[in-house]
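User: Can you predict the 3D structure for this chain?
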Amino acid sequence: QVQLQESGGGSVQAGGSLRLSCSISELPYMSTCMGWFRQAPGKEREGVASLYSGGSTYYTDAVKGRFTISQDNAKNTLYLRMNSLKPEDTAMYYCAAVAATCAAMVPFDSWGQGTQVTVSS
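Assistant: Here is the predicted structure, written as structure tokens:
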């Protein structure tokens, strides 16, 4: 497992943008699936985006075309750029990692503590 720490959350108006960052203590494996999840009050946690170290990405339909996941290996940091934010994007956002390919669908075993994103209309 690795240590993850999110930052960059905040309050914005609808249509605004935020960039979340996830600092990663180390990447012990070459093959690592990194992901962003979110959980709104009273709702189940949902996957937002994932990135495999080989470069392939996945986005849930609700954020396609608005969010971009990326990774800076030199800085050991995962990002989530969020544009055209909507009130329904309001949630606690978490980054997660697992030493496997994303396609393997192995449960993530390293999680950050989350950063709050609030979008007002």
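The radius of gyration is 13 Å. The longest strand covers residues 91-98.
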